[in-house]
Amino acid sequence: MANTNFSIFSNQLEASPFHNRLHGLVGGTMGTASSPADPIFWLHHGFIDKLFADWQILNPGAVHPNPTEILKPSPIMTRTNAQVWSTLALGYVYA
């Protein structure tokens, strides 16, 4: 949370034990590309989102290194990184 660089923060968040490893530890559907079919996926990703929102509060001047990149997979996703960067702009906050 103390790292002010988004890319480094993101890499640390993806590493053990936070994001990627939990998918494998839970196993079953959570360990596959179909992980959104598992209800635990949504709890897990809600927590990851909260960690990201907390990091943004601690680093208000941080910006995404690729703001114009369109989220994957296309054509399902049409938003850019910049459009989904702020939970406040998306209309929600964590208490």
Question: Summarize this, please?
Answer:
The protein has 4 helices and no strands. It has helices spanning 6-14, 20-26, 39-58, 87-90.
Structure characterization notes:
- This protein is an all-alpha fold and 95 residues long.
- It is 42% helix and 0% strand.
- The model has no long low-confidence stretch (mean pLDDT 90).
- It has one domain (6-90).
- The radius of gyration is 14 Å and the shape is globular.
- The longest helix has 20 residues, at 39-58.
Q: What is the beta-strand fraction?
A: under 5%
**Which structural class matches the secondary elements?**
mainly alpha
Q: Given the structure, what is the number of helices? A: 4
Distance between the termini: 17 Å
Rg, rounded, reads 14 Å
Please summarize the sheet with the most strands: none
Number of strands: 0
Average residue pLDDT: 90
**Overall form:** globular
> Could you say how many structural domains there are in total?
1
Order of helices and strands: HHHH
Helix content: 40-55%
Residue stretches low in confidence (pLDDT < 50, at least 5 long) are none
Write the topology of this structure.
Blueprint: H1 6-14, H2 20-26, H3 39-58, H4 87-90
What tags apply to this protein structure?
95 residues, mainly alpha, 4 helices
